[in-house]
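YM 10:42: Putrescine transport system substrate-binding protein sequence, as discussed on the call
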Amino acid sequence: MQLTRIFGIVAGCCLAVAQAAQAGTPPSTGVPVLNVANWNDYIDKDTIAAFEAKHGVAVHYETYVEHGELMDAIDSNQFDVVVPDSVTLGSLISAGKVQPFDTSSMQGFKDVQAILSARMRAKDASGQHAVPYMWGRIGVAVYAPKVREALGVEDIPNSLDVVFSPENMPRLAQCGITVIDSHLDVFAMLMHYKGRTLDHVSERKVREFGTWLNDLAPYVSKVDASDYLEDLPAGRNCVSLVWEGDGRTMAKESANIEFFLPAEGTALYIDSMVITASSKNKELAEKFIDFMATPDIAKRNAEYTSYNSPSITAAQQLETDGVIEPLSMTEVPVFLPPTIKPALEENLIHLWTEFSERVNNSEPESKTASAEKPGVGESS
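YM 10:58: structure's back
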């Protein structure tokens, strides 16, 4: 797939401006219009055109790149269908920001892998608020020649030690470490790495997370959701904590990039299509979700994005065609990041924002000078 960038929605007050800039105002063609917002570069646009042609409608399509922008899209009351991650889904259902719909008659919903359906029940107990769209895991992508040189090894360990260990971080900071801009995913990964359970999130664990972020900050060169797609293959960074689809794409397109799922286990994410509570086009929204979940369309979108389709049929077709290697949910242990109480998540977001700003606003010289500081969780 082409790793293009489309920044359709930006935070807060700039939402309407961004919409006009990217796709213009919704078309006034006299046909029904469905308003859809999705993650950046996360759909084959030809499938949208196919839906429009089949149903004689128009789709006004926008994109977002960060969790905050997803929430801005939902709160704008301008969209019928959005695509939240599995962690956010539970909070959206509890807050009444998405509406239930009939999933039982949808062909694609019946074709979802059983293990994913079971995991989804933890967030959507009724099974009537969401249809899985893509799934994946958090992994590590490395610019292998630089990492081998920095660590003095031939075989790079398939471990979170590459990102988080006190011994490795000072060495790898010299060639660049980046982490995905996702507070919940990084929270889950750090907690898991430190041996903390995720079945209950307490104030103490949030405070620990803040301490670990402070320890991590001197070694991280950037917190971002998409720049690594160009920076890592170009060798501007050497280690990136990334979403699986991006990692596999970079490894496929560059001989210098290796991607692995950490042997200790990793966070599972399931992105689903939902209908917002404010939608006045529920019937059309259901048709769109059903269309995108059918195996042939799901296959096209998975092939385009390099992410994993939840459709059993689509995944089998992709394997048969040689587009993807057989994927196993038991390859490494997986866990869903927890749903966190709103008050605690506010604290988490505050800590994450401080961390991101500290990292992204820091000068390169100060990062290099700080590389002698203790690592994550290590005392000075």
